[in-house]
Here is the input.
Amino acid sequence: MKFLVIGASGFIGSHLMNELRRSGHEVIGTSSHEGVDGLLKFDLLVDTLTKAIPRRFLELGDPPVIVLAAVQGNMDRCLADPHTSRLINVAKPIALIRHAMSYGAPVLFLSTGHVFDGTLGNRIESEPIKPVNEYARQKLEVEQFLQDEYPNALIARMDKVVGETSRHHHLLTEWWELARDHMPIVCVEGMEISPTSVNDISKGLKLAAERGLRGIFHLAGPDRMTRAELANRFCAIGNVKSPVVEKPLSAFGFLDGRALRSSLNGNKFQDAIGMRFSTANDILQRFFKNSGALPSPTDY
Here is the structure.
């Protein structure tokens, strides 16, 4: 199979690229910046598929699966600059999808569990949606476009995706850096998440594309816990001495709303694909195994 990963320099996009290549697929990945090793420059705001992507890749043989991983994911920036964020998250992806449809290319769209209002966790795909911030409203707009005009697309909703090494920026590396500097790990009080391995996400997306999965699916690990509960496990498994502190959501000064409970139920996807996602403990154990031990206070 062929894949075109738009936004392959990002956290999920880069891991998906590696997973697809390991499986022997032909893959082109893009970045909005020049000179990123192994990636084509593709600025979602100004470029078109035929301008940036070789025509042979689009036109010869089966069309590539188009993976939309590029995003303005900073929720407060989406509210502060809705014009630019809507271009990145809504208008340009929809234009790209329309172009891809002319080639008969399947579309895989990465979305978010924040399309729900956050009053309950463990959400399933059929539950009512009610975004609480501009970022989620933008993601939902593309979801609705796909359902109305391109129902063969795969919409993959995700919650808190974390890595298994310290080589990329994600929640665990943020905590790793705080622990290294002997700083407290501060969490939003009562914020419930589904910790999910980026490696599992990449494998799941690959399998879903290979099997032609269509519709809306939640990709999420099996555990539902507060950020503080995950942070305490992080400290216990990694022998980390940083205190874990909870503060109410209002204390963080966010410009836009947050879903207090964004955890997702991934059973539908896991049953469809036949894989099981890693537990939080498994993810944390692999993170510390891959990252090594933190320096002790005497090393400073």
Remarks:
- Residues 107 and 155 are 8 Å apart (CA to CA).
